[in-house]
Amino acid sequence: MTLSDRSKNLSLRGKMKALIQRILEASVEVEGEIVGSVSKGLLVFLGAGEGDATSDLEYVFSKLIHLRIFEDENGKMNLSLMDVKGELLIVSQFTLYADIKKGRRPSFNEAMKPGPAEEMYERFVEMSKAAGIRTQTGVFGADMKVSIVNDGPVTIMVESPK
Please, what sign has the CA dihedral across residues 36, 37, 42, 43? Predict the structure, then answer.
């Protein structure tokens, strides 16, 4: 691996990712039981990468709750989750770090290890609740079935800067 390749790999490390979808409703089921369910708001698939820090978490959280992606009275995307008093369904999603450049099987080497990733996920959930947002979750590391009624659809990837 050349120095240039190493620099490129390091620049990708520590970039927290949240794939968000504007929803009318969404729920998550584990072992046949609904564990989280929300109405109008955002479904957040959250992934932590190796090297992520609290600053990455705070950036992604602030960005997604203040993104103006809900329609105002004129039909323009001009309102944030906070403006519409929307809800959040937060689902852990390490597969956001899938690297498919080589071969046919994704590599997840850039995803944070499960222990620290779960801590980041729980902090994100705590931040949401502390902000007064009605928040529901999936179960970290579980096999989950997610049901979504997209609104738009509007799907946006939010990443922390690195």
Answer: positive
Q: What is the pLDDT of residues 126-151, one digit of tens each?
A: 999 999 999 999 999 999 999 999 99
b/e per residue 22-48 (b: at least 16 CB within 10 A)? bbebbbbbeeeeeebebebbbbbbbbb
Residue that the structure tokens 């729980």 belong to? 122
How far, in Å, CA of 88 to CA of 21, rounded?
A: 10
Catalytic site positions = 93-95
Residue 28 CA neighbour count, 13 Å, CB half: 22
CATH H-level, domain 14-159: superfamily: D-tyrosyl-tRNA(Tyr) deacylase (3.50.80.10)
> Which pTM value belongs to this model?
0.89
